[in-house]
């Protein structure tokens, strides 16, 4: 079995979209908003988006949460586990959740509920990639980088069984 990666979204396209996303998001962030990036997949996206948000003169707090649902499969198991909870107090504070991909919706729906459970104020969601055709929940992200078809993608922080996160572009993994 051979594996190949077909480029889908280039570094340049990602860069331009992240700049535009930051401009969309910035006016919607209240002072003191905690940005919670879901690891590991959103780590590259979060790093780039935060540095763009910095140009908009905002007071930003960053935290991380490690959730997992996939194991080493290309399909979601549907069960979401908290491997590491965020450390910042989100009680009565607005939260912007960042994830790499909105697919079935199970992960982000879980994260939103978890933030509500922790007493967060207004919760906004932002995903780099949206695959609406696979949704199993009625969640829609407030901010979406790119809407893509039902393809398994890797790169720019996104993995297949922990591989390919280091690629600077997003590609379609073909087997
Ligand atoms: P959901 O819970 O099905 O919405 O899936 C969200 C999570 O599944 C994302 O945060 C990704 O980590 C992972 N995921 C979904 N689609 C892909 C893909 O095409 N490649 C790699 N990971 C994916
Ligand atoms: Mg993920």
State the helix count: 3
- From the 3D coordinates, which CATH architecture would you assign? 3-Layer(aba) Sandwich
Topology as H/E string?
EHEHEEEHEEEE
Share of helix among residues? 10-25%
Major β-sheet annotation: 6 strands, mixed
Principal-axes shape call: globular
The span between the termini is: 7 Å
% residues in beta strands: 25-35%
Total number of domains: 1
The kinds of small molecule bound in this structure are: inosinic acid, magnesium ion
What structural class do helix, strand and pairing data support? alpha/beta
CATH first level: Alpha Beta
- Largest sheet strand order: 4-3-2-5-6-7
Low-confidence stretches: none
Mean of residue pLDDT? 93
Number of strands: 9
Query: Would you tell me which CATH topology applies?
Result: Rossmann fold
Rounded to an integer in angstroms, the radius of gyration calculated over CA atoms is 15 Å
Concise structural overview:
The chain is α/β, with parallel strands linked by helices and 175 residues long. It has helices spanning 11-25, 43-53, 106-117; strands spanning 4-9, 34-39, 61-68, 81-84, 95-102, 123-130, 143-147, 153-154, 170-174.
């Amino acid at each position: 079995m051979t594996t190949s990666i077909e480029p889908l979204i280039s570094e340049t396209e990602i860069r331009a979209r992240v700049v535009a996303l930051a401009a969309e998001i910035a006016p919607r962030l209240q002072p003191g908003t905690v940005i919670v990036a879901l690891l590991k997949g959103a780590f590259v996206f979060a790093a780039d988006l935060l540095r763009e948000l910095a140009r908009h003169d905002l007071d930003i707090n960053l935290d991380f949460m490690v959730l997992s649902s996939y194991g080493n499969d290309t399909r979601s198991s549907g069960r979401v586990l908290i491997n590491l909870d965020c450390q910042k107090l989100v009680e009565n504070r607005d939260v912007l959740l960042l994830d790499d991909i909105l697919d079935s919706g199970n992960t982000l729906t879980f994260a939103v509920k978890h933030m509500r459970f922790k007493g967060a104020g207004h919760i906004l969601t932002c995903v780099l990639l949206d695959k609406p055709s696979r949704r199993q929940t009625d969640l829609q992200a407030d901010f979406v980088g790119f809407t893509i078809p039902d393809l398994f993608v890797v790169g720019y922080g996104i993995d297949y069984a922990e591989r390919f996160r280091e690629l600077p572009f997003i590609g379609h993994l073909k087997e």
